[in-house]
Structure formats: C-alpha cells, structure tokens
Design brief:
With 254 residues, this protein is mainly alpha-helical. 61% of the residues lie in helices and 6% in strands. It is globular.
C-alpha cells in the first residue's frame, strides 16, 4: 500500500487534492483607518477642495472597500470638523470663509495662550523633554523639509504643549483649530508659492524656555507672540484681497 503524502491541501493516498487557501483577511478597523488617514491628508493639503461632496459609493470604489469602513472614516472626520454631514445629502468637505480669518486667528491666539500657560503650570519632566525634542526637530526641518512636513511638526509641537496642560477639552479644540490653520496655510501657498517657512517658528524657543522655567506669564506671552507670526503671514496674504461673502467651497453671496 502506498504511503500517504502530506500536502498543502489534504491527503488521499498518493493523490494530492488541492484546496483553495482562504483570502488574507484585513484586520478589523484597518480599512476605516486607511480611508480616514488618506482623506484627512487630502483635505488638510487641499487635494480635496473645500465644499467637495464625498460620496460613500465612490470612496468605496476608490479604496476597494465596502461602505461600512468608509462611513466609519467619515464619522471620524465629521467629529474633527473637517467634513459636514447634511440631511439627505452626501457629506461635504467643510468650506471656509476668508472673511472669518480674523475671528479664527483670535480663537487660535486664545488657545495658544491658554495651552502654553497651563503647560508651564502642570508639565512633567517627561512632557517637557518631549516638547524640547520636538522644538529641536522643527528647527532642523526649517530649511530641509517641505511645508507639509513643517505644518505637521508644528501641529505636533502645539499638541504636546496642550496635552502637558492636562485639559482634554482644550486639547481637542486646539487640534481642530490647527487643522483649519493647515488648510489656510495650504491656500496661502497658491499666492506666495509653495516654499518652506524660514522664520514662522522662531518663537518656539521662547515658549519652551518659559515652560521649562514654569513662568506662567512668560509662557502665555510667548504663545501670543507665536500666533502674531502666523497672524502677520495670513494678513499679508489675505488682508488686501477682496473677501466680501467669498466662501471657499461655496458660492459667492450676493
């Protein structure tokens, strides 16, 4: 009697019977995360314009996924304020009104001041070490990296400061404002050219020094000065441009 032979399928004497291998399974949640990461990057960098409709079926075909993980990703983006869900319509990328830039900058200044002050008050040694390391990393990126990387690193710097302040609500608000700011920065690139900043992060050293010394007033002032750099850039780009009723991603009001 012939000996049995083990195969990748099953064995029947000397005859090999092949069985189909099951297709590789995607880890639960990874599909939604991939959609979220890709769409978030496209929205922040204006590869998807403000006001663009996001159809679940089309996104499913793009990412080769069912509508369920696509919908999960859209819910996360909606929670961050990057898209708007409208009744009986596909969600849209959140438009922004250039005329509202001054109000946005005021809100961002408030969060910079509050987060820096709280970080000076409550930061731990480990949190200070992470903030210092990030500030040094941004310094190395100023001349060598593109604006997208600089904006990402700047966001991480300010989020580390907010987290050191210990108020999760403030941290979430600041994150949304910084995301809005990144879209505005990418818009300004259309006017002044997509080139790396050389001095926009110069005030970071003052913030770090004040947080290290736990000087609350100095930390708050340094945060305000950091925002002034951003304010001056935006006003230079948009201040002399007509904005009456102009909404990016929307229609011009009459």
């Amino acid at each position: 009697m012939a000996a049995s032979k083990t195969t990748a399928g099953r064995t029947t004497g000397t005859k090999r019977v092949l069985t189909a291998k099951p297709p590789p399974t995607r880890a639960r949640g990874t599909g939604a995360s991939a959609v979220y990461d890709a769409l978030r990057a496209d929205i922040l960098n204006l590869k998807i314009a403000p006001g663009t409709l996001l159809d679940e079926s089309e996104l499913g075909r793009r990412f080769e996924l069912s509508r369920s993980p696509v919908r999960e990703a859209l819910i996360r983006l909606s929670a961050e304020g990057l898209i708007q869900t409208l009744p009986n319509r596909s969600p849209v990328v959140t438009p922004f009104d250039i005329a509202q830039v001054p109000g946005f900058l005021d809100a961002l200044e408030l969060m910079y001041r509050v987060s820096c002050r709280l970080a000076a008050m409550y930061r731990t040694d480990a949190e200070l070490k992470a903030i210092v390391a990030k500030a040094k990393q941004i310094g190395r990126f100023l001349k060598d990296k593109d604006p997208v990387v600089q904006l990402r690193e700047n966001r991480e710097f300010h989020m580390l400061i907010a987290e050191a302040g210990g108020n999760p609500t403030y941290t979430a608000w600041l994150g949304q404002l910084l995301d809005q700011g990144q879209r505005l920065f990418r818009l300004s690139a259309f006017f002044e050219g997509d080139r790396p900043a050389t001095s926009d992060f110069a005030e970071h050293n003052g913030i770090v020094a004040a947080i290290e010394k736990q000087d609350l007033a100095a930390a708050e002032l340094a945060g305000a000065r950091d925002l002034d750099v951003l304010r001056n850039r935006f006003l230079r780009e948009f201040g002399s441009r007509p904005t009456g009723g102009m909404k990016l991603g929307g229609s011009r009001e009459r």
